[in-house]
Amino acid sequence: MTSPEAVMRLAPVIPVLVIDDLAQAVPIAQALVAGGLPALEVTLRTACALDAIKAMKQVPGAVVGAGTVLNPRDLDAALEAGAEFIVSPGLTDALGRAAIASQVPFLPGTANAGDIMRGLDLGLTHFKFFPAEASGGIAALKALAAPFGMARFCPTGGITLASAPEWLALNAVLCVGGSWMVPKGPPDPAAILAAARLATALAR
Known about the structure:
39% of the residues lie in helices and 16% in strands.
């Protein structure tokens, strides 16, 4: 992937994944990709996350990124594991400059106008809106996006299959992030596949 826009346009939803058991990584990735969701965000919240990225990259059609990237050290570790895009809950100058220098597609988290302006100053135009529901929901993003016509967003945090269509209807939104397709506990590939197909069918 050469740009964050390309990643964001792969599917209406980017699954946000917390992988606790490395053995579950490939079955989850296979089910999501088969269901039409190729962009997979593996959060760096567990001990096996980097190994999960390496494993999932072997699944044909998967575009595997790292989420919860907090600093340049996390960025380097994610890139070494083969992450093809980077997602962060926020934006610092240090992380922003490191991500830009690496030329990896980067979606930094934003929740207010100052965050977006900091990103624009760095040359970034594609952002995660996080935590989406807790930060004021659709009304907040509509208001925030209005002064920044060049910015595009992937809202993440509290979004469900039921609420996703309203988010995706916003001009500034290219996709949403969500974890509802892969509930906690042992994965059920058939259920994940079915949930992925419903997410893939969402209109943009």
